[in-house]
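Researcher: Next sequence.
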Amino acid sequence: MRPARVFALLLVAAVGLCSAADGDKPKPKPAGELPEIKELPNPFTFGDGTAVRTKEDWAKRRDEIKNLCQDYEYGHLPPKPKMTVTRGDASTDEAAKVTMQQLTLKLEHETNAITMRVTVAWPSEAKAAVPVLLQPSFSFGPPKAPSAKSFATFTKRGIAVAQFSLTDAAPDNKRTGGVYKLYGDKIDCGNLMAWGWGFHRVLDALEGVKEIDAKKAIVTGHSRYGKAALVAGAFDERIALTVPSHSGAGGSAPYRLIYAKNEELKNISGAFPNWSHPDFKQFNDKVARLPVDQHLLMALVAPRALLQPEGTQDTWTNPEGVQQTFAAAKQVYEFLGAADRINIRYRPVGHIPSNDDLLDYADFVFNKKPLSEAFGKFEYKEDKKAFSWGAPK
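Model: Next structure:
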């Protein structure tokens, strides 16, 4: 084995750290001082009550929504650190027709440093750069070395895979290590935003891999990592397709609309307090005072592509509620002339992801291949109380 080749990617750090402690903006009002909003909040109304009427207005409202999501729900997105990428030698599995390479990302801020590790696999017979799927391994420790065959489902469809452990970016349900080691008490983000930040750093590294078309990046994750994938897609406009699988509360499911024994705000903030902003628990018994809900996070992805894979038997993740947030977010897509860039796919399953749905939708987005009639089909009755507003005409 030849020694690894080192490519230094020096990324400019953002000016200053976004934090709720910043002195140049007012401190967010506590839950008790916020107005009650019974239905899903209107994306087309600014905080001061004025209406969104143009795409230029939406750009400003989008920034407002991003700030609200950071101030109240997720904490603030940390900045880019300096990054050095070490690339190992590429190896090809001739039988699987997959080429693999290991990337080691050294992330530095001041005197602190952390490491993220990424396995990249692409179709060995590709004649040009290919789209790439950023997919975390669902593990709570160092990822096991994957085999080339494990990536063949994707590479056979012309898509590369970048697999990594999000626990490198932040341990699960803790505010230690990872990004917290890097920036210390200068940041207030919970794990979901930290994991979104981790997706972004992997994408930074992939921009230096010539076999990868980083402009056709897909982010996905299942369950808690589905939540993180949606946050990643909402806060990085480089991402072309976002696929949060069965992401539930904190992902695509609404906090305000509960239809069965679904995961609620009090459940997620109680069992996983470190996933969110440190003050998120103030909304446990004041859900209607939360100034955002998950359709607004989904709307931040617009007009880029978004697929919602859900299971009708996966009751805890509130699949009926996701139908309502999907319908609400689609109003924004329609306003932006991108109604065909958002879709939903229900299957009669429990907490199980579907690679087939992801690949079919990627083919639609990147290759204009038609979708089956199962895409976009609703499984539940319309809830007319979910929201009464619509896109401006």
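Model: The radius of gyration is 20 Å. The first strand starts at residue 5 and ends at 9.
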